[in-house]
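>> received
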Amino acid sequence: MKYFFPILIILFFLSSCSKKKEIPLFELEENTGIQFNNKIIDGPLENSFLFRNFYNGGGVAIGDINNDGLADVIRTSNMGQNKLYLNKGRMNFQDISTTTAIK
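>> returned
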């Protein structure tokens, strides 16, 4: 009886340690064609003291640019070039920033 409760507690903890297999919410495509890197370079005129939201990045907008019924993506960058990605279907995008002269 002296060892009954400690053994019971140990068995309880060991039985609760089983790892459950998680089912993913969705599967990512191998390559969507969208590359993003918001590279920020601090300087005397560009820093978080002068610009409160300096490290937050630009933004992303989703919309049908060419009226084909597919959602296209435009992303803006703090210090880099803005990009426009045309949706080709099945989560594949093409960078058309240079042909549309987006800056």
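>> The chain is about 15% helix and 20% strand.
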